[in-house]
Amino acid sequence: MTVGDVTLSCRDPRIIVPLTAADAAGLDAEVAAALDGGADLVEWRVDHFTSRGDVDAVAAQCRALADRLGAVPLLATVRTAAEGGATVVTDDEYLTLVRALCERGAARLVDVEYRQRAAATAIDLAHANGVLVVASNHDFEATPAEDDLVERLATMERMGADVAKVAVMPRSMLDVHTLLRATTVQFARARVPLITMSMGRLGLISRLSGQLFGSCATFATAGAASAPGQVPVADARAAFDLLRRLGGGPVG
Questions:
Q1: Choice among 109-113, 136-140, 192-196, 228-232 with the minimum mean pLDDT
Q2: Lesser CB count within 10 Å: N end or C end of the chain?
Q3: Residue 117 — φ and ψ, nearest 5°?
Q4: Does residue 43 have a known ligand-binding role?
Q5: 7-227 belongs to which homologous superfamily?
Q6: So where are the chain's domains?
Q7: How crowded is residue 171: how many other Cβ atoms within 10 Å of its Cβ?
Q8: Catalytic annotation on 138?
């Protein structure tokens, strides 16, 4: 899948840098750091934005970020408290924010939590506005069984997602193996790119070598982390380059 000049493929894994500042000044500084660090894509975590309750302010800030990023695609995300985010919203409020980001925000991609009641409507709305959808699911407590993870990714694809993403918390290295196995299994079947990760220190290997198992991108920091276990952009880039030089290739 291609977003502007950026192709999402595990054969050329990409680095996504999150923006988590609460206001315009902080976001401006984070964008500068992300661009200086060489981010391939940038994610704006709208749930951290102080003015997130003002739809006009959200749309205007999204446009400002997209303008500043230029050719670097912007992924706009309203992460709910239920999935580790910083805001509690009703279904209607969630859909209103997604609508503003898609219709007036100039984002290239929008995150849609696939278990949101408004998810199907949000996906249709995004596509109607030419915006690609990263369907997502996050478990900050545990790692579901392999079959469950595979089914979650498959369901996202059936719902019309352009990218399917899961992030889970491991309690042992066996949990990390479970996430990587599920990624490999679904990669062999999927018609859309996958982004998967095991969080925290235990899951670090999944962030730095996920492309070997079928994940097309990792989230890395140029400032504050948006989830446990994210590493600085330079370290993620170095790991990708090392695997490329040594001939480490993707599955399939």
A1: 228-232
A2: C
A3: -60, -30
A4: yes
A5: Aldolase class I (3.20.20.70)
A6: 7-227
A7: 12
A8: yes
